[in-house]
Amino acid sequence: MNTTRKVKVAIVGLGNIGANTHIKYVKQLDNVELVGVCDLVKEKADKFAAEFHTTAYYDYIELFDQSGIDAVIIAVPHYDHTPITIEAFKRGIHVLCEKPLAVHVNDAQKSIDAYEEAKQDFPELIFGMMFQERTLPFYKKLKEIVSGGDLGQLTRVTWINTAWFRSQSYYDSGGWRATWAGEGGGILTNQCPHNLDLYQWLFGVPARISGHANIGKYHNIEVEDEVTAYFEHDNGMIGHFIVTTAESPGTNRFEIVGEHGKLVYENEKLVLYKNRISMLKHLRETKDGFTNVESWYTEIPVNTQVPTGHKVVAEKFFAAVLNGGGELIADGAEGIKGLTIGNGIMLSSFNKKMIDVPFDADEYEHKLMELIKTSKFIKTVQEDVKNDFSQSFSQA
């Protein structure tokens, strides 16, 4: 690695994640120089610029054109991810984007297209997504086992992830939260982009989706706070995805079933029920109508004493920038895959029928724009709410 040159980076968006996470690890990296921070709120930009001895900007175009940055970390509200990534790529600026890549598939594709076009002039341009949950030890072990084929033909995946409890005061803490115009959705857009990414990382994007989303079932919001989805994959595997922000105590249970056994991840423990023979072979050939396949209980060892989180993703990103390429935790173009699942769930729910993937992205975008245009929701904002967002990150 080039140890003399430093990546000149700026952070756009100084909300909770930008100010409390990104700016802090950036200052810890030896190969990075923070040359600017940017926020529409002048007082906020000035405050962090003074605290971290850098330059304040109030408009990202001015930042891009005046700061001389090599790379930008984008941590603004969801809808703004698209125009900011596009403008960065036009200037050959490397991008590390917070989740989600966009609110809807059409906007995500615009960012990807802009990146591919920009690479014609800047072939070493790097585009990364902040999918830090891919660095978590239990999920990495699931990836290793599934990708290694240990389970053989996969038949069912069930992920119950209801450990996303949010109070009404959380939703009332910001004017943009849990609105179609401000956030573009609820739990699938805000809390679950990581889960949707992990699902596609492990199993790919489903071929068919049946989604059931409840809008403001438990909270006074206009977006979804409870979702149950059913997936079908072309290889015959089915999937279930169950999430809510209104369950306490919540559950995070991941079952992955294949012909050679079943993996269960729950409560910081990963268990493999290893079949002695293929269950598919057994069910076809046995003369006994009721006998299960003999299976062996094995607790899979997982090394949890490893670096994880946002900093690990950023280190890979900056190394790739300095080296003119390299492996990322998550490539930017991958951001469209989990988003496709989330949009598909909502489109299926709106239409009350199973949909094929790929679906009509224009139809989903038009539906979203209609929801924004016809919204009569009155947003109540509480300024005195205390939110410790470190508690919202998975520790798996």
TrEMBL record:
InterPro entries reported in the protein's UniProt record: Gfo/Idh/MocA-like_OxRdtase_N, Gfo/Idh/MocA_Oxidoreductase, GFO_IDH_MocA-like_dom, NAD(P)-bd_dom_sf
Cross-referenced Pfam families: GFO_IDH_MocA (PF01408), GFO_IDH_MocA_C3 (PF22725)
Domain named Gfo/Idh/MocA-like oxidoreductase N-terminal: residues: 7-119
Residues annotated as domain GFO/IDH/MocA-like oxidoreductase: 139-263
The name this protein goes by in its record: Dehydrogenase
Species of the source: Paenibacillus aceris
